[in-house]
Amino acid sequence: MRDQFGRTIEYMRVSVTDRCNLRCVYCMPAEGVPCVSHEEILSYDEITKICRIGADLGISRIKLTGGEPLVRRGLPELLGMINGIKGIEQVTLTTNGILLKEKMSELAANGLASVNISIDTLDEGRYEKITRGGRLREALAGMEAALSCPSVQVRVNCVPMREIPASDYIRIARLAEDRNIDVRFIEMMPVGHGKAFAAVSGGEITDMLRQEFGEVSECTGRTGNGPAVYVRFPGFKGRIGFIDAISHQFCGTCNRVRLTSEGFLKPCLQYGEGTDLKRLVRSGAPDETVRSEMQRVIYRKPACHHFTDGIYDNERKSGREEDDTRDKDGEEMLETRDMSQIGG
Ligand code: SAM
Ligand code: SF4
Fold this sequence. Notes:
This protein is of the alpha/beta class. The protein is built from 11 helices and 12 strands. Helix 1 crosses helix 9 and helix 3 packs parallel to helix 5 (136-147).
């Protein structure tokens, strides 16, 4: 369906849990976040129902995320359930990769189209520090398992930080040199614990990589579900992608909404507004009621995020009359939770 600004909304990121087996410094506090009880988390049947109603509204692609989606038991089964929905063309997964080796064949058997594996550095010590205890070799074993499934496209996602030396980004980009992998650099967003870290833009990373690998050529055409801009270095099998949500705001073409593990439908990452679909679904509301509520919230998706306050003041004035980003007192309802709780 189209929202009020004419954007086609076809992609839903579905968080299946807010729990995680890592504690990345920009995503979670060391002690973890207070866990939501099992009863508060949508069941697989409830998630599937919401995806089915979403498919009626034109959602054709689903990304399973979290927290760490693979810590939830039976995830491949959910994947299969969603893949079975008429109108759903693609189900993908974002994971830290730690549990991927053991789950990969089952995920592929249930129709996983692509997997994004988050690895911020290939330096074991720094990986352990960033993830607060994670073992790089387990994530890499997950990556190799994914690469051994020809039907699954593999991407590595890296969130660059100023604290990390340029040599790490060159090393991680090299994953795409002789493997069929897209390596994507995702700009740090000032969400939750991410606010404590300065972002490194794709432009800066490109400059670092150019010095090592030479001139880049831009890749054109549709390249996935989102706003990544891809380039290719000479001799590389895979591509290098950049997702710069802050320095190159792409809200004008944003095609996504999010469903939190507690069943809250969020049209924009930055704002706390949305609708409690779990309450509706559990109250026994007919599909038609759930559908119109989803339609209402998707339609009123905000024009753009305002992470870089001040810079977008004009859009702020012109684009904010008709959306739900303010409460009844006119106060902005900004998202206050971490990425692991929203479903990054
Ligand atoms: N646990 C899984 C993982 O790490 O891939 C899925 C959930 S995680 C929240 C999804 C992605 O969000 C990861 O690639 C992570 O690096 C990224 N992320 C978390 N906090 C972020 C932030 N503040 N800015 C940008 N990306 C962030
Ligand atoms: Fe866990 Fe992913 Fe957040 Fe890291 S980025 S703490 S792996 S949810």
